[in-house]
Amino acid sequence: MIPVKTVAVIGCGTVGASWAALFLAHGLDVQATDPSPEAEAYLRRFVVRATAQLAELGLTGTGKLSFSPKLADALQGADFVQENAPEKEALKQQLLADIDDLLPPDVIVAGSTSSLLRSRLVVRCRYPERHITAHPFNPPHLVPLVELVGADADVVERAAAFYRGIGRRPVILRREMAGHLANRLASAVWREAIYMVEQGVASVADIDAAMAYGPGLRWSIMGPHMTYHLGGGDGGIAHYLSHLGASQVRRWAALGTPVFDGDTQRQLVEGVAEEAGDSSVADLEAARDAALIALLKLRPQIR
Amino acid sequence: MIPVKTVAVIGCGTVGASWAALFLAHGLDVQATDPSPEAEAYLRRFVVRATAQLAELGLTGTGKLSFSPKLADALQGADFVQENAPEKEALKQQLLADIDDLLPPDVIVAGSTSSLLRSRLVVRCRYPERHITAHPFNPPHLVPLVELVGADADVVERAAAFYRGIGRRPVILRREMAGHLANRLASAVWREAIYMVEQGVASVADIDAAMAYGPGLRWSIMGPHMTYHLGGGDGGIAHYLSHLGASQVRRWAALGTPVFDGDTQRQLVEGVAEEAGDSSVADLEAARDAALIALLKLRPQIR
């Protein structure tokens, strides 16, 4: 693991603030920056709440948090950079070039982008090899997954060691792909879920329940390949593929792509409102976080 | 809830044996039948193991288990039927017709089929309205989801009440659809997961990890619609759809369908073998069941 003591957190929206809380709870100092006038107050509020959540998981480090609106202040002496600027390609290209001008070339710069391609973001960089994508899953201080994409295997491996050291589960992509891995799986699920709403097969709430009380429960324990391995009995996935592979291909052909028009969107909004009942988004987030903490406390029982 | 005291379990493979254990642990008597000479021994072994698991969840009912190779014996005096014959349409058509001849028409006959359509299965029935599909998720004695499809709303609602009474989460489909809800979501996920293997983006094990440490963790708490509701910030899903709906449609277009040839299948088998390491399917199942039990003990914390 790299001897990281100070992390620069660039961009302090939901993702950046969540990263900051995680780093602090592991005893790392955080030098945060964001050009928005509201950013510091938001960050400090978020960190207070997330720090309490992380303490429930036994993470009680007391890293030092500093904030400056100036990029150079945040980068000064940083051993690792976590960039979380808005998802705008040109903005990030300029920002990464600016970081290159201010930071020694051996410091890793990890970007949290969910939708942009690393190869496009580094086009103006002097030291593109030290730039990686390190995409977390919301909320990053709780969900362990970090998807890594880089051009230099050594840089990627050093970053992976850093993230493992703070309790993350890094997954290394062999090449970049839009949406990385997890959001592609999420999009595939949502497309079919919306298709079933559009087709009138079940309500929004019932489709959500079919996930959370069925396959979703298993997917928090193991991924899709392993799930089908267990679906094959003693013969495992080889047996499954030889006996039921053809039926999967037929099922794929029957999956749908919804017409995503105003009518479908209205059904989704109304269906979610019905499912949510009196709970605000903030209520639902708090409930989700409490459930995630309960799940994470079960580790290593559930890996 | 229907006053059910005795359930006939028709077909005692993995699914039937698991149902039997669940009914017994809720204090219901089970009259099981299966034409296979090995069925009774398999059933009794399965029930011993599953009963111990259910006791961990506080379910310590002591229903009486009887077995006969004769269908008529199992149906004698039954208040509810759970049918789990092999997934062969003609076989089930004949079986359901035979059940109709032996059973009073007011007793509900629920079939566990995952892949066949209820409307096709009842074509030879005298009392098709009492037949419903009640598809559980493996292993049925642990995973709460039951997907219901029927032609008579009253029958479906009575069955839903019965399943709720034994701790299941019934979801009612408004009309039948191949694969019901949950297996369609599972197929959609697996298609994209296999596509990413085929495209060489990541290993089988890393794609599985991206699920279980990322979206899968959240999907055990809430389904895809609610997940995107929380992805929209304070504005919820309405905000998400207006701001990011178009990007979802673009992402759907980028999702893939793998060429499911021998080469891809070999990659899956080898990748799963690497992921499983020294663990047999039985080992993995035991670990999965232990994890599911740990998760289920968290209820109602995780709904």
From TrEMBL, chains A, B:
Occurrences of domain 3-hydroxyacyl-CoA dehydrogenase C-terminal (ranges): 179-267
Pfam assignment, any one: 3HCDH
Claim: Ligase is one of the keywords in the record: no
Gene3D superfamilies, alphabetized: N-(1-d-carboxylethyl)-l-norvaline Dehydrogenase, domain 2, NAD(P)-binding Rossmann-like Domain
Keyword Transit peptide among record annotations: no
Protein keywords: Oxidoreductase
3-hydroxyacyl-CoA dehydrogenase NAD binding domain ranges (all copies): 6-173
Name recorded for this polypeptide: 3-hydroxyacyl-CoA dehydrogenase NAD-binding domain-containing protein
Organism: Ferrovibrio xuzhouensis
